[in-house]
Amino acid sequence: MNLLLLSHELLVLGLGLGLLLVDLWLPLPAKRKLGYAAALGVGLILLYSLCCVRLSPGQSVQYAFGQMYALDSLALFFKRFFLIAALIVLLMSVEFADRIATGIGEFYALVLFALSGMLFACSANDFALLFVSLELITVTFYVLTSFQRARVASLEAGVKYLIIGALSTGFMVFGIALVYGMSHTLNFETLAGVVPQLGSNKVFLFGLVLVLVGLGFKIAAFPFQIWVPDVYQGAPAPVTAFLAVGSKAAGFALLLRVLFIAVPDVTAHWFNLLIIVSAVSILYGNLCAIPQRNLKRLLGYSSIAHAGYLLLGVAALSPAGRSAVLYYLSGYLFTVLGAFTVICLALRQVEGEDLGALAGLHRRSPLLASTMTLAMASLAGVPPLAGFFGKFLLLKAVLEQAPMHAGYYWLTLAALAGVVISFYYYFSVVRAIYWSTGATDLSPISVSWPIRVVIYGCIAGMFYLGSFPGWIVNVATEAVKVLP
Amino acid sequence: MSPLTYIIGLPLCAAIVLLLVPRTFRPVLRGVAILATLGSALLALKMFLQFQAGGFGYQFEQQVPWVASLDLSYHVGVDGINVGLVLMGAIVAFAAACVSWEIKDREKEFYILLLVMAGGILGAFASLDLFFFYFFHELALVPTFIMIGVWGRGEQKNYATFQITIYLSLGALIALVGLIAFYVQSGAGTFDIPKLAEHLRHKPLSLGAQNFIFPLLLFGFGILVSLWPFHTWAPLGYGSAPAATAMLHAGVLKKFGLYGLIRIALPLLPDAARGWMQVLAWLCLGNLLYCGWVAMRQKDFNRLVGYSSVAHMGFVFLGIAALNLVGVTGAVLVMIAHGFLAALTFGLSGYLYQQTGTLELDRLGGLLRRLPFIGAALMMAAFAGCGLPGFANFAGEITVFFGAWQSFRLVTILACWGALIIGAVYMLRAVRAMLHGPLPEPWANVADAPHLWRKAPFIVLLVGLLVFGCFPRLLTDKIEPSVSEKVMSAIAPERSPDTSVTTELRPGAAPRGQPEPLLTSAAAKAADVQE
Lengths: 484, 531
Hints:
The structure holds two protein chains of two kinds. By secondary structure, chain A is mainly alpha-helical. Chain A is 75% helix and 2% strand. In chain A, strands 1-2 form a two-stranded antiparallel sheet. In chain A, helix 3 (73-96) packs antiparallel against helix 10 (237-262), helix 12 (271-289) packs antiparallel against helix 13 (295-315) and helix 13 (295-315) runs antiparallel to helix 18 (407-434). The relative contact order of chain A is 0.10. Chain B has one domain (3-530). Chain B has helices at 3-20, 26-50, 80-99, 107-126, 130-151, 157-186, 193-202, 207-224, 233-240, 243-253, 255-268, 270-296, 301-322, 325-356, 367-370, 372-385, 392-407, 409-435, 452-470, 473-491, 499-508, 516-530, and strands spanning 59-67, 72-78.
């Protein structure tokens, strides 16, 4: 077995363990700066991944651990995605460190462990690895969400996430057991071979539904979204950011693999289910976001809606739809991380993250104000930002399938309604920044240079992906070719 | 490089340049904006003069691949239909930049948004790629919302901002779905409009598909153009918008929907168009009669102008609904004329508001004595608005009526009487209330436009109205062959199965714009109402 295939995961794990060790000898102020070391390490791994890791020519996929672990272009796409996300989250965490009383070293290490879980997840080719990697992500997030031990809201978020997460894990394990019981295999590709015989076996299908329930929890799609608003609101801002981007993307990577590699025959019959889940997530997320006054809670509901948008591409059941999902996630990465970086900095002194606290932000820091505005515009889908082209690709993919089944028209209609509704609440965030009165605190916000780099990077990402999408669309199209 | 790229690129590049200029350099901010739009307007004028009337296909074309895998490309070019619109858009953008001296707060952001809006509008009119056509429109639309929200006026500013944002986004998205559905159904695998047209000429869409897509485009674009009964965003939105925004939106951006109907919906979905035009003809009466009626009851001048601009859209819809060469040519003519007119009226009302702080008709009066130049310009705008010969609106409206008469007699009669009389009544009443009569005490100190630079935007727009009003052939000679080649050949293929026959058609059916008998009667009508 070629251990080099696992180089990303091993390097990240090593980095995390190294941090834990170093943490033992450092005084507290230095521990806070440890995040820079972690970010540097992740940056180097990203660089290594971009420069040195290539799939061996002629082989579209390479396996490790007896076909449990697959390295293909889709996995590589997601690995780089997660590395970028973790890099930004770590830099954000350094900025957040003074609000965490103890154990900041562990905080960085946990972020790295969650990252390694995501790296494993996107290579999972087997229900066992799927389960283990998801647990690695979820368990670290239980701790991360409740890391501000002095804040009741943070503890509450941790407990809620734990209970609902444990419930969904239970469902998933049960589902995997049923699938295994009927098919006698855990491997995705072997399963794909036996699905045609099992196609109408109720127990098998029931097991599969339960697996999807577990994944629905990760991507925060309706009706498994109950935890999202409270957890997003209560968790520390960098954790929420990582949850919104990393955890959701890991869920989508697994969803794509399960639906299109393990059980393509069943998926072809389940488009109705996907259409309904997608449409209801979009409408539910957007409608519930309207009355929100807490910024993180608002983004929580918006993240439910975005799970719905991403499911548009999955429900389309076409390569164009799947590559649209990958493109949309890339845009979503820069957009959401940009927004959370601003939340992290601008709402430092405020307890509740109320929208009103954004008042006067354009005077306190024009850079942060314009970043937030651009992020909201990209989420709403305004050209020339990434969100616009992403929604265009998703809608195009869905409409391409519309002649096959009329349900896709209704899905398009729901997506349209959702986008129009979303304009209202994204716009009210912008309004709170630029033209609400009653700003009490007008002290300028200092932005450290690493964060400045992050912010400029996010802005550049939003503009680049939106204005020159050709390159990333090609990469995404190549990546989804491994999905039959 | 096509001059169109410079025309679109100048304002957009200037917007990026302004990002780097410190906000304290006020004259520089303003100077860059005015110079960029002036350059763009001059280039558009040069292109308009160089345009070869009667040629086939597109001129000044440029195509650069953008996303090769989806066959998306930046493709610009003009034919007779959009060459006048680009010129009008560039001139209005210049005028809008000139009148923006009234903005004192956050000038930097205002000029950046204004330039983005101008570049977006011109890009939308010049694009020959479905995606960019929509992309540029969105690029121009979003600054509109922000400008109304930040620099708007009046108590209902916030409500107006949300209303216009949600309403127009809905319209734009419906149109987007229509465009994507059209792309998917056509099966050509390209977003390029000329290629799509060529493909559909050989393989037209089934009637079922056309009948499904056409209403999406009709109502999506219709919302953007304030087609009755989807017009309610317009008066409030324009009433709350800063002058430059209202000028650009009501004058130029709004024409995007009409242009989309003429460029895409009619020629590419001809069978559905024939069926739906009956509906459109009756809806446009709602614009002409109902909105005109409502305009008569307005107490605020900006609201009145907002309703009147909605009413004027009825002429364009009527011309499109006529679905013949004369009608569609007239529709394009009215689009250009109304662009100048709406920009002029909103520019003038902005000046008045800046001087007096109110636009309530009851509180104003006698202003002509204090404002000879502005007052005279307003008077001319009012005359143009009620269709006086000599102004471009007259040429356009009369052509539309000629075209519509062949298709819908009853609608044309109602439209003609209703619209011309109602239009004259509310415009002249507003002029009387504002400019004539005793001068109320508070306005004793209002000042006229002090020097040529302040007068320039209004002069430019008036010149546009008058030149195209006196010599409408400058436009019709360009519009009409292109309409016949691109639109009519698809709508009425039995008369012109291929392009060679359209050449024969061209000289015969040319509208002249100034037919003698009607000209005098319309002038007499306008004179009657004045008295």
